[in-house]
Design goal:
Blueprint lengths: L1 E3 L11 E4 L2 E4 L5 H12 L5 E2 L7 H4 L4 H16 L24 H7 L12 H20 L4 E4 L21 H11 L5 E5 L6 H7 L5 E8 L24 E6 L5 H18 L3 E6 L16 H12 L5 E5 L5 H17 L1
Parallel strand pairs: 1-4, 1-5, 5-10, 6-7, 6-9, 7-8, 9-10
Antiparallel strand pairs: 2-3
Length: 342
């Protein structure tokens, strides 16, 4: 399996995030992708290639121009104001406030984000842009006939909506690649999100549409981030009704419960008649993940890959979360090897 990867991810390294009342070093750090890349090479999964540059046009198919302009220019504005440290939002247009775009940088940052978990640093735009190109390059491989490809994206993308960043995510790599398939003539694409957290951005982007089926297995949002989306009764709206399936599971769920949900999701994907599958590959379902509460073990990821392969679809794997840094490489590559060995 070909892997696409860009060293540009190192340009994004947030200093801290607020967890349990304390400012902690960001769990979403460059070593994550370094460990996965090392494991890809160690296991000789296949060639590792640098991405091509497809420009902004395919990104603009998902994200609004106003959002992209804001994101691209935010760090420079922050520096012009004498900003010290990472640029982090602290006010959001919640229920009792007006949803409007103020002039101030922090006001705009609040408008374009949903939490304080997506710090903007000097290199964040370039890293996120390159991650989108990694996804698009792997997408092009499959469009040109490959049965599978791995986009080793960092930063991840599935929490980012059309004009909202959050949860370590800025540009929705999976959505951008999915839209590229559709724009190139595919009629139906399925997205399977196996990250521990609900892919709220991806769901929101495709919620009213019938050309994308979104299925996500994740920690119950009643108990777990992102809290405000990802419930089982969210089935899509309008033409998209019946094209959105959430499988929230209780904290502590192990492979037995997780794989039963995967079976249901795969049945939905099979019935839908997708031509291509995009997998939002998060491995923060791992038992030792520092911020998550499922109990999957490393061999389970091989079984996950085998079940996904049984769908018989050309499959694009896009890296999302996973924070047990020592194990993230083993678990991510186990999914890919399980897929290939099936
Ligand atoms: Zn996650």
């Amino acid at each position: 399996m070909l892997t696409y990867y860009s060293d540009d991810h190192h340009l994004h390294h947030g200093k801290c995030e607020l967890i349990d009342g304390q400012l902690m070093p960001c769990f979403e750090k460059p070593q994550r992708a370094d460990h996965i890349l090392a494991r890809v090479k160690q296991r000789q999964l296949g060639e590792v290639r640098a991405p091509k540059d497809f420009g902004l046009a395919p990104i603009e198919r998902i994200h609004s121009q106003a959002y992209l302009q804001f994101f691209q220019g935010a760090w420079t504005r922050w520096q012009e104001q004498g900003g010290k440290g990472d640029l982090l939002p602290f006010t959001w247009p919640a229920r009792t406030l007006r949803r409007m775009i103020p002039n101030d940088l922090h006001g705009q940052l609040g408008y374009y984000s949903f939490d304080g978990g997506a710090p903007i640093t000097a290199g964040t735009w370039q890293a996120a842009y390159s991650a989108a190109q990694v996804a698009l390059s792997a997408q092009a491989e499959i469009a040109n006939g490959a049965h599978s490809a791995f986009a080793l994206c960092r930063p991840p993308g599935h929490h980012a909506a059309a004009d909202v960043m959050g949860g370590y995510c800025y540009l929705n790599n999976a959505a951008i690649a999915t839209q590229a398939f559709l724009d190139q003539g595919c009629k139906k694409v399925a997205i399977l999100d196996v990250d521990y957290h609900h892919g709220n951005g991806t769901q929101d982007i495709f919620y009213p549409r019938s050309d994308v089926l979104f299925a996500s297995i994740h920690g119950d949002p009643a108990e777990e981030f992102p809290f405000f989306l990802g419930y089982a009764d969210e089935l899509g709206e309008g033409e998209g009704k019946g094209c959105n399936f959430n499988y929230p599971l209780p904290m502590g769920s192990s492979w037995e419960a997780w794989s039963a949900a995967l079976e249901q999701a795969c049945q939905r994907i099979g019935e839908y008649g997708a031509e291509v599958l995009v997998v939002s590959l998060g491995v923060d379902t791992y038992m030792d993940d520092p911020i998550s509460q499922f109990k999957l073990d490393s061999p389970d990821y091989l079984a996950m890959g085998r079940r996904i392969a049984a769908l018989g679809l050309p499959t694009l794997f896009i890296m999302e979360g996973g924070y047990a840094v020592e194990a993230i490489g083993v678990n991510a590559v186990n999914v890919l090897e399980g897929f290939e060995g099936a």
